[in-house]
Amino acid sequence: MTTDAVHPPPAPSPEERPDRPALRAGRGATHRGDRVFRGLSRGSGITLLVVMAAIAAFLSWRAAIAIQADEGNFLTTFEWDANADPPVFGIAVLVFGTAVSSVLAMLLAVPVAVGIALFISHYAPRRVAAALGYVVDLLAAVPSIVYGLWGALFLVPHLSGLYEWFEQFLGWTGVFGYAGGAPRSLFTVGILLAIMILPIVTNVSREVFRQAPAAHQEAALALGATRWEVIRMSVLPFGRSGVISASMLGLGRALGETMAVATVLSPSFVLQASLLDPGGGTFAQNIAAGFKEAGTMGRDALIASGLVLFLITLLVNGAARLIIARRKEYSGAAA
Amino acid sequence: MKPQRTNRSRAVALCAVAASGALVLTACGSDDNSEGGGDATSKAAGNIKCDGDGKLLASGSSAQKNAMDIWTQTYQQACDTTEINYKPTGSGAGIQEFLQGKTAFAGSDSALKPDEVQQSQKVCKDGRAIDLPMVGGPIAVTYNVEGVDDLVLDADVLAQIFDSEITTWNDKAIAKLNPDADLPDTKIQAFHRSDESGTTDNFTEYLNAAAPKAWQHEPAKAWPTKGGQGADGSSGIATNVQQNDGAIGYVELSYATGNDLDTVDLDTGASEPVEATTDNASKAIADAKIVGEGKDLALELNHRTKAPGAYPIVLMTYEIVCDRGNKKETLDATKSFLRYTAGEDGQNVLAEKGYAPLPAEIAAKVRQTVDGLA
Fold first, then answer.
1. Is A200 a member of any domain?
2. Average pLDDT over residues B15-37
3. Are A93 and A202 in the same domain?
4. Is residue A152 domain-shared with residue A234, that is, in the same domain?
């Protein structure tokens, strides 16, 4: 799950070297230990697969029931009325809201995270770096509901000034239109999510940058490169796939974030161009808002939307793996 | 709190020492409490008739949470062999759990739907699930408009505000109802619940019944129109009304008083505008009609009531049990507990928590039905 860059080479399995002498304990004991450990680790692997399969099967089964009963088009309906009779619901608004808020969060967070990571690994004095690393770790430990409360009580009331400025200078784009009122919009959610994924992206990137081969960097220095050039020529290419992995981890968190979004966003089932006006919704937020009072059909409909989120997450992770695999040869991450 | 707990654990210990088998333990539970056990209980719990024992599981409406908290606390002081666990999971989840036979009763913000009654025949052998009105509460309309301390609105204007038809506070329709107020030209920000909720259900039911022309949406747990802003939970609405000048929203009364928010007085057509208070809500419940069939006591509130002092935006919540075929292990305790909650003692403690006590006539009917549960 973390970086491909830090995967150790696969250790040869015990069967491949039967002649290895048993240490201290008798031969039989080691064999038993081997067997037990092999069984345990294999069991863990199988458990993971079984759990994933069970989740997928459960989601698909319940989703199929709901989608069959849906009177609207599951993909294009701009409405969520799953407890009505007949039920009408569609995920169009949720797909849009989830994608926009997460992508926004990535755009805002990744450059800053890479900056922090580079500062910690290459610029900061050792003591400052340690302290900063500690603070970033601390940020990762804050529960999401606390981010949500901070967002609702502090961030939202302080954003209307910025949004009015956006409206004044960028309002003509439509995307940055702002009609006033409490700015509990997708853009606000994007900002909050960016803060939330900052620590994880920073941490993983920092670890990768730290492992950039010293030989490469020294070689670059020897050729007369400045520190920025060293980073650009040896650290960044080496860390690229790691940063992508880190971003994907962050994206995964942003896609699935529930409580913070539910606390901050003013959801509605309207697809609108403006990201600053209240409205929109995300998968996880919609499930949290609807689950408690949902009837049987309502719950199945929410599960169907959960399945879509599951698939989107799978696709995103798959795409990330593809990118990493293609980049590997250039980055030296395979070394 | 502390001395009571000591008494309780001592009583339990005594009971356990005296008991050499399950049979004795049962006897210990029911008999001791109605006679000897009374010594250990506080005055508030004096009139509770304990019956049955063991663990009583229930779940449902979160609007009932505060009422249940105080009820279970008082009841358990009086009847220390019964343990009541009410989980405020939301009405939908509560009804589901009840229909799956996991709980002894469910709390719900709305009466059972026909298909839920149909499903209930599985858990209620030879019977069906019924609604018992138990906890009512006024839904207050709160607002935050600088310079306006008293605000009177009627159903039509409320409907137009929440439907984004009226958009500024100095609108003529509002000015007409408040001739003395100095209304600013602030934009109205109408806040509704973004999560599905019984409060929204009851509020939209009121708008639909009292202002059918201005509000043409069916009552629903999910907010039916696309205008305005959504906020998560009653606390979310209260926070946002507090934060935004020009905001208006609807919450259970306790959230309005708890957050020091101004509430709207309703012009119901009675001689004077009605304030959102527990007393006034009780008056409106007294005007309700029982529409449930057989033992079902589902109420239909008269949202257009013009009775003086009756506040018609009321959240009516129910306990849901089987009329026949309740689980044997929990039947006695369920009856005993519900008899207490529907009784005078049970209902009178509600007012201080922002709920409206049931009118005597309806409470009597509920007790009668509880006695007949099997």
1. yes
2. 38
3. yes
4. yes
Residues A93 and A160 in one domain: yes
pLDDT per position as a tens digit, B272-313? 999 999 999 999 999 999 998 888 999 999 999 999 999 999
State the Rg of chain B over Cα. Answer: 22
Domain housing A57: 17-68
Instruction: State the complex-level ipTM.
Output: 0.76
Least CB-CB distance to A293: which of B91, B189, B247?
A: B91
Same domain membership, residue A216 and residue A75: yes
Residue B344's identity, in one-letter code, is: E
Q: Is A330 inside a domain boundary?
A: yes
Does residue A124 lie within any of the structural domains?
yes
Is A167 found in the same domain as A44? no
Residues of A with CB under 8 A from a CB of B: 80-81, 83-84, 152-153, 156-157, 180-182, 184, 262-263, 265-270, 278, 288-296, 298-299
Question: CATH number for the domain including A88?
Answer: 1.10.3720.10
Is there a single domain that holds both residue A33 and residue A82? no
Residues A42 and A166 in one domain: no
Name which of A188, A265, A292 to mutate to probe chain B: the one with the most chain B Cβ atoms within 10 A of its Cβ. A292
Give the closest residue to B5 by CA, choosing from B67, B86, B70, B76. B76
Tell whether B197 is within 8 A of chain A (Cβ). Answer: yes
Give contacts of A287 with chain B, Cβ < 8 Å.
none
pLDDT number for residue B46: 59
Specify the pTM: 0.79
Tens of pLDDT, residue by residue over B319-358, are 999 998 898 889 999 999 999 999 988 999 888 888 999 9
Mutate to test the interface with A, among B65, B196, B245 (most CBs of A within 10 A): B196
Q: Are B266 and B276 in contact (CB under 8 A)?
A: yes
Helices (H), chain B: 2-18, 22-34, 65-78, 91-99, 114-120, 155-162, 172-177, 198-210, 233-243, 253-258, 278-286, 328-342, 344-348, 360-371
Partners of B86 in the β-ladder: B58
Number of domains chain A is built from: 2
With 0-12 / 13-18 / 19 or more C-beta atoms within 10 angstroms meaning exposed / middle / buried, residue A126 is: exposed
Q: What is the mean pLDDT of each run of 10 residues along chain A (335 residues)?
A: 44 48 52 90 96 92 91 87 85 94 95 95 92 90 92 92 91 85 92 94 92 90 91 90 90 92 91 88 92 84 93 88 71 45
Any domain includes A79: yes
How far CA B38 is from CA of B3, B31, B45, B242, in Å, comes to 15, 11, 9, 47
Choose among B92, B95, B229: nearest Cβ to A278: B229
Q: What is the pLDDT of residues A124-175, one digit of tens each?
A: 999 999 999 999 988 888 999 999 999 999 999 999 899 999 999 988 888 8
Which of A40, A68, A96 finishes a domain? A68
Residues A61 and A75 in one domain: no
Token readout for A122 is 């290459």
Hey, are the CB atoms on A293 and B194 less than 8 Å from each other? no
